[in-house]
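Pasting two entries for a bug report.
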Amino acid sequence: MLHKAAVTLILLLAAIFAGTTLAQPPSDIFSWLESHQPGEGTVRITQDVNIRNMVNLHLSQQKKINGIRGYRICIYLDSGQEANKKADQERAKFISRFEDAKSYKKFEYPYFKVYVGDFRTKSEAWRFLKLMENDYPDAFIREDIVAFPD
């Protein structure tokens, strides 16, 4: 049980630090966590080398895809001659109503789509979908690669 808790904690830390922007990103998160800075405490991690390698591999893969697995809500989906213009209009309408939420226009052949949010869990996406269901009754949730948390 303690082993599972330790792995969970390490993966959580890895996910947090995957989005951290450093001047020199660490190739080994454990070494970075254990590094001692003046005026700070000392961290010592006793970990199997295979788990260390697995976590570092996971972090490097997350950096390559420039995001993490998560969810977004599709509020617009259409094709045709006016679809690009309509997607811009839908996105502008969304931004005026929900100015703190992020939105993205994408072209995925043959459709122009507008996605909103960078949700880590499906339940976060569902909560936001409920807030906007009157404005966007046909909106739906889909898995996507989302931006790292701020």
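Entry 2 (this is the one that rendered wrong in the viewer):
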Amino acid sequence: MTARRTAFAPLILAALLAGPAAAQDAGTAGATAGNWQRNCAVFLDTLAGRGNASDAEISYCIGQTEGIVGALRTGSQIGALAFAGLLTVEAGMNEQAVFDLFKRVDQDRLLGICMPAGTQTAAQIETVYRYIDRQPAKRNLPVTAVFFEALQERFPCPKPEGK
């Protein structure tokens, strides 16, 4: 074992022995909507002039939020692409036509969240935070699921004409 691996061994062992509560505090597990909301409360308080969050607290909230939104977008693209592949194989659809359509569809429409251009992270944070306030039972749900619901509610995609 190298010196670097040996130095990390006690940290890994401590994390394994500490149990789920420590992992939640470290942000590696327990990614619930309630945990995210607690982490971002100081950001919104500071934004409203009622608090004095540190740069680290603000960066943590913004980083979590941008990471979640980015993951939702990426996941929707991967899911849509996988389904497009399935259509070409199972339904015998024209592969090129399916993938041409996939490339033409707006990424936000795949996700079902159509935020106006220039929507800032602060607006996303406030949207999800207020959504959780209105629906406190969702605090124990995975944060990504609650983000999806909150952002879809606030920023729905327009229905295609004729539908």
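Dev reply: Rendering is fixed now. As a check, the viewer should reflect this: The two ends are 62 Å apart (CA to CA).
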